[in-house]
Amino acid sequence: MSELDHASDPVVGASSRRDLFKLAGAGVGLAAAAALPLVPATAFAATPRFRLGEPEPAFILDPDVLYMNIGTTGSTPKYILKQFNDDNREVATNPTQSFGGVTPFRTLAAPGFGAELEEFVISYNTTDGMNKILAGVELNSGDEIITTNHEHPGGNGPMNLLLQRRGVKITRVNLPVGNNQKAQDYVDLFKAAITNKTKAFVFSAPTYLTGTMLPYKRLAKLAQKNGIMTIVDGAHATGMFNLDFQQTGIDFWGCSGHKWQCGPGGTGVLYIRNRVTKANPLPLFNFWPTNTNNSTLIEPRTNANAETYNIGTAVQSIGNPNYPMLKAFAECCTFWDSIGRGVIEKHDLTLSLYLKQKIASVWSVDNLYSPKDDPELLSALTSFSPFHTSSASVALGQAATDETAQSTTFVTRMREEYGIVIRNTAVPVIGSPAPHHPMRISTHLFHSARDVDRLVRSMKDLASRMDAGA
């Protein structure tokens, strides 16, 4: 059982990140975060297979390896893997087996994300979703997208295609790194970049490079005031955060199913706003299901709080899918729902805050590339360097080569010598000629404070050895 769990605590629902900070006593030291109760035993009454902070018996992660790279890919629960295997065998035996078709799987998964069925698509990963979104929205020559310099290739690829094929202008705002930042900073950056040609905001929440959770609700409000559509790369949001897509005010979300949601590889979530709501009163933006085998004439979309037509089904329909894979993904979603997405969010973010505070204590707060003090920017991804601060300037040439090699060696040795899997990223830093290569660490539902303690001890030891030339 996680050392942070206390059976006497009330069940945690969709608690806000600000409540988390009040409980943790952010900024008053490690003891507050380490003592923070997470969830009680009663929270798992409906889920006897699993307790937070314990990989067994729900997951088959290698017990000899501490896996902290969920940001790359997660681990599908054991009982779902067994059913997935059985279902694949069933299809091999009876090739016409469809398990009722894709609609029942979408019906199971959509409510957990605060979406109606007609807005919800089980995609094949974030890149698939982002490509479908950016190919389907109406952007033409001279129109402008405002995005950031911290985007993933899954979003940059289709944006570059719009630039090259249609003449859409791409404007990038340079994002801050480190702890010295506030949510309002991002609103100010995007607001300053708006022109009369701006048609879309495209940004990640959280970013894959530093784990900064961009304040999507604030950015959605800014966009709505200016008649701008919002498109979010949420690869690291689904399965980590307790999202209610309709209440976010965002028009389109392209998300992963195999990372924090721990579904099979080749699964994702695509949300297409299909109603006018209080959270987003703008008329629906034109969207064309460009990747579909649905030959029905697409009708104009209405601007009322009711579906026009089932646009999700039109986008979902692309021929014969992998039914067992989609079924397994839906089962992962209902498993998360049974634990409680608010419970998982609180667990993940609390461990992340605990890790960030330990890094600030053992190294310095300046070694963090992720923010820790503004709860609105917090995610369960932590980015930091054990060798230099986030404000350091890395020169081009040999200095950049050496910094990259040092970072890569650290990741390799953590796995080979300490049995801990993390990764590094290449982060553009304002004022630095070359990108930095900090570590990126994921804390998820099968991790405990003991895991964080082991990680920090191991990283401190390895950094000291490498500094000494060992």
From TrEMBL:
<dbReference type="InterPro" id="IPR006311">
    <property type="entry name" value="TAT_signal"/>
</dbReference>
<keyword id="KW-0663">Pyridoxal phosphate</keyword>
<dbReference type="InterPro" id="IPR015421">
    <property type="entry name" value="PyrdxlP-dep_Trfase_major"/>
</dbReference>
<dbReference type="Pfam" id="PF00266">
    <property type="entry name" value="Aminotran_5"/>
</dbReference>
<dbReference type="GO" id="GO:0008483">
    <property type="term" value="F:transaminase activity"/>
</dbReference>
<keyword id="KW-0032">Aminotransferase</keyword>
<keyword id="KW-0808">Transferase</keyword>
<dbReference type="InterPro" id="IPR015422">
    <property type="entry name" value="PyrdxlP-dep_Trfase_small"/>
</dbReference>
<dbReference type="InterPro" id="IPR000192">
    <property type="entry name" value="Aminotrans_V_dom"/>
</dbReference>
<protein>
    <submittedName>
        <fullName>Aminotransferase class V-fold PLP-dependent enzyme</fullName>
    </submittedName>
</protein>
<dbReference type="InterPro" id="IPR015424">
    <property type="entry name" value="PyrdxlP-dep_Trfase"/>
</dbReference>
<feature type="domain" description="Aminotransferase class V">
    <location>
        <begin position="89"/>
        <end position="392"/>
    </location>
</feature>
